[in-house]
Amino acid sequence: VSPFNYTVSTPNTVTIFSGILDANTLTFNGTGNLTMGGGELQLAKCATVLPELTGTYDLPDGKITFDGVCAQSVKSTGTIATDYFKVEFTGSGVKSLTGNTNIADSIFFTLPTTTGNYVDAGTDTLFALNSSSGIVTHTGGHVVGEYNRAFTSSGGDYIFHVGSDNSDTETYFEPITLTPSGLSGASSVTARF
Predict the structure, then answer these.
(1) What is the pTM of this model?
(2) What is the distance between the alpha carbons of residues 10 and 30, in angstroms, rounded to a whole number?
(3) Nearest to 99 by CA among 66, 54, 64, 141
């Protein structure tokens, strides 16, 4: 895809190396193959089970942006693997996670401050697999559920952006900071909220 914006319905095969592929409110459900070596795929489907990537996909690079005003479910795999390279949770609607969601490089939280990203705390976890302390960018939103970050034994400050689900019209949000120093025997920490 050349470096221009595109809006498409569900294709059989798409490969993105640069530019922005904007699926907008159309269905992009991965029934064909998706490969990303760069660029950005924007998904803003307004439905309870979309957007999701359910077909064959290979995402060694590039950014998936879950946008839109509706509640959207991000469907992923049930085992620890690199499912996404970069992910951004944006727009104004809650982005919930179905299955373990694993991000190899960076996570961007740009939802409104009072809006959370929901995780099924009983079975699913949002995994940040990059052990660098600076891979999470936060301007709003937070995680409700289980949120795991990889770290190095003395890797700086690791901030967990977790909070409440606003069910009582109050949002309780607190950035929890982990600062490892000379630790051994552990490579990640899960915050449950």
Answers:
(1) 0.86
(2) 8
(3) 54
